[in-house]
Amino acid sequence: MQSSDERDIVDIRGLTISYRTVYGTLAALNSIDFKLRRGESVAIVGESGSGKSTLGLSIVHLLAPNANYETGSVLLDGKDITKLSTRQVAQLRGSTAFMIFQDPLNTLNPVKRVDVQMLEAIRSRYKFEGKRFNEEQAYAEAVQKLNDVRMPDAETIITRYPHQLSGGQIQRVVIAMGLLMKPKLLIADEPTSALDVTIQAQVLELMRELQHELQMSIIFITHDINVAHSISERMVVMYAGEVCESSGTETLVKNALHPYSKALIASIPTITKSEGKLNAIAGSAPDMLAPPSGCRFHPRCPYVMPICASQSPYTITKDGTEVRCFLYG
Ligand code: ADP
Ligand code: MG
Question: Above 50 in pLDDT, residue 106?
Answer without folding.
Answer: yes
